[in-house]
Design goal:
Layout: H1 3-11, H2 18-29, H3 35-48, H4 52-64, E1 79-83, H5 91-100, E2 106-110, H6 120-124, H7 136-146, E3 148-152, H8 159-169, H9 177-189, E4 195-202, H10 211-226, E5 231-238, E6 246-247, H11 249-260, H12 266-283, H13 289-301, H14 304-315, E7 334-339, E8 344-349, H15 351-363, E9 377-380, E10 387-388, E11 393-399, H16 402-415, E12 416-418, E13 428-433, E14 436-439
Parallel strand pairs: 1-4, 2-3, 4-5
Antiparallel strand pairs: 5-13, 6-9, 7-11, 8-10, 8-12, 9-11, 13-14
The structure holds uracil (URA).
Residues 84-85, 111, 114, 165, 174, 179-180, 183-184 line the site of uracil (URA).
Amino acid sequence: MVVPALIQRKRDGGALAADEWRSLIDDYVAGRIPDYQISALLMAVVWRGLSNGELGALTDAMVASGDRLHSNGLGRPVVDKHSTGGVGDKVSLLLAPMVASCGVAVPMMSGRGLGHTGGTLDKLESIPGFRTALSLRETEAQLTRLGCAMIGQTPEIAPADRKLYALRDVTATVESIPLISASIMSKKLAEGLDGLVLDVKTGSGAFLPDRALALELARTMITLGETRGCRTVALLTAMDRPLGRACGNALEVEEALQGLAGEGPEDLMEVTYALGVEMLLLAGVERERAAARRALEATVSSGRALETLGKIIEAQGGDPTVIEDPGILPQAAAVEVFRAPAGGVVTAVDPRTIGAAIIELGGGRQTMSDTIDPGVGFVITVKPGDRVAARQPLASVFARNDAGIALGLDALHRAIVIGGEAESLPLISHRVTATGLEPL
Ligand code: URA
């Protein structure tokens, strides 16, 4: 196989055969193709796209790059959820223990921060001691015992996505329907799921801001899932402002704990419950939406979901006392309040500016080898449409030092726009299934 010739064919708009995708992925995972050649190929895919046949072949090759989870002996339906990526999106941290507390097995396999968006693995690793690199056998044992494991791609499961994901993060090759679809669906298909719920983000902070493209992404992933035996449903949710209030790894864990204790921000809880309802219906443990919602709410009001999260944290080497004392999470050395420069109506809270600033503060990666500072980020207490008075506190910056505080305040000045007409997307706009599109 001559890799430059394959890159050239893709660059010029041609298609690669299934066995060529398979060899490319196998050789890359085995270290026989360097990052720079795969980077060039990924950029060619960003520009030229993939045919349906190529997308299926790439996804299958990525699944086959590792082992699969054997989840059919668990005695419970196996369902997961995945988001296409957002800012402040800590839904997985709440949803996994809530749904597991309803009798569903949730093998939550997540990624790290990607582009300007945060990643569930980085958030979890802000909990002292928490280990996301479980082996396949450890994951299966934990699923049997607790109904939930929260893991990353390992050398055993979807290793191709682990390498490609890290490479895409630092080569501006994230924003592509086929690459996002293959990345998400390879991880999820390797979990051997009965059902999958996708949270497809739309709006300025999504990788694909345009609603039509978000819909195309949803349909592409649904087709990949359904044709491979995994029932797949998507909700389109707003990412034209951060979800919830906290943005940044440890800050988001703290907000997730508040949510599980019944004190989460309304938008975060609404998206979590809506996705959870779809998961319980797909799992077949509930037949009716209202009953599914009540079952999820009961896991919060009874404290069962929080208790389950504590058990998951303990099982994965983390310090479970974080449940009662979030103060053990890494803390930023410097904190400063941002006040409204003028009175008026908040018209925008731009998630991309916030996500990019978190990376600059040290909370995300600029190169593949960067280590991140889990304590930095923002807590933003206003949403588009809120009326604010001059000098009212709107947000806080959490940084390592004074330079970080200055950087964070500058980002908030650019991200939070006051004045004019507020226009924001509906929090949850559509439900997409294999049979159609339902406006909500
Ligand atoms: N989430 C993933 O797992 N992969 C992507 O490419 C984007 C979001």
